[in-house]
Write a structure and sequence with these properties.
This protein is an all-beta fold. It has one domain: Neuraminidase (6 Propeller). It contains 1 helix and 30 strands. The strands form 10 sheets. A 4-stranded antiparallel beta sheet has the order 7-4-3-30, with no helix packed on it. Strands 8-9-10-13 form a 4-stranded antiparallel beta sheet, with no helix packed on it. A 4-stranded antiparallel beta sheet has the order 14-15-16-19, with no helix packed on it. A hairpin with a 2-residue loop joins strand 23 and strand 24. The protein is globular. InterPro entries: FG-GAP, Integrin_alpha_N. This is FG-GAP repeat protein. Keywords: Signal.
Length: 273
């Protein structure tokens, strides 16, 4: 049985019986990204989406200890379904292969990484069809691990170091060219992206106008199923919202469902089902 989340009792999420149409949930899994959450108890959970709307809420596996941090969602093993990427407090990177919205196992990637590097996102920045793991060094240098069948093939720097007035917020194909882009936000609120080609930055382009600090950019993914990744936000009142993207530009801003309590963290966007 599906488990849904209902925002009641002061915005806290409560498990209720899901009224989603299973046919729509199945259809959502064919090419629409889902929104991945983690509860403060450690429970991972996702919202299947269809045309930008939530169809229900489903738990994934059992709660995870706070020695692990959910860092991103992407297809690092190249099987066509996005995986959930974690990092242990020792620095060890690890992923859950996913199928039909459920975890198939757990696999370590390479060796532990020092805390001078931060895992910022997962996406196909080199255009080879498998999602890569994108890092940023404390110096500002952006770097990625090309991935093949869930394993690291090497490490490649992207462009030059970036000042700490910019934050790397996510990875996704916001311009619809088939290669995932790197999405930033300036400390003045301005969203911006780097179009990518074969693992290298080809430009830098602002998206719309600066956004107030009452909104946090939470992820990048195709939540409306139109083939271009969208930018997913959350307001400080818990409201989830996305910018529909076309050719690198915002075409609309749309709320998803009702506000979510702060006992849940929006941890990523990807097609886990």
């Amino acid at each position: 049985m599906f488990v849904c989340l209902s925002a009641i009792a002061g915005l806290a999420l409560t498990a209720v019986a899901c009224d989603a149409d299973p046919k729509l949930v199945s259809r959502a899994g064919t090419g629409t990204d889902d929104i991945i959450w983690q509860h403060y108890s450690g429970q991972v959970h996702y919202w299947p989406l269809h045309k930008g709307k939530r169809l229900g809420g489903i738990d994934i596996f059992t709660p995870v200890g706070n020695d692990w941090t959910l860092r991103g969602v992407g297809d690092v093993n190249g099987d066509g379904t996005d995986d959930i990427v974690w990092q242990h407090n020792t620095g060890q990177v690890h992923y859950w292969p996913m199928q039909g919205g459920q975890r198939l196992g757990g696999v370590d990637i390479f060796t532990p990484v020092g805390n001078d590097w931060t895992l910022r996102g997962v996406g196909d920045v080199d255009g080879d069809g498998t999602h890569d793991i994108v890092w940023q060094h404390s110096s500002g240098q952006v770097h990625y691990w090309p991935m093949y069948e869930g394993q690291r093939l090497g490490g490649v720097d992207i462009s030059t170091p970036v000042g700490n007035d910019w934050t790397l917020r996510g990875v996704g194909d916001v311009d619809g060219d088939g290669t995932d882009d790197i999405v930033w936000q300036h400390n003045n609120g301005q969203p911006h992206y780097w179009p990518m080609h074969e693992g290298q930055r080809v430009d830098g382009i602002n998206i719309y106008t600066p956004v107030g600090n009452d909104w946090a950019m939470r992820g990048v993914g195709d939540v409306d199923g139109d083939g271009t990744d969208d930018i997913v936000w959350q307001h400080n009142n818990g409201q989830v919202h996305y910018w529909r993207m076309y050719d690198g530009y915002r075409t609309a801003g749309i709320n998803i469902f009702t506000p979510v309590g702060n006992d849940w963290r929006l941890a990523g966007v990807g097609n886990v089902d």
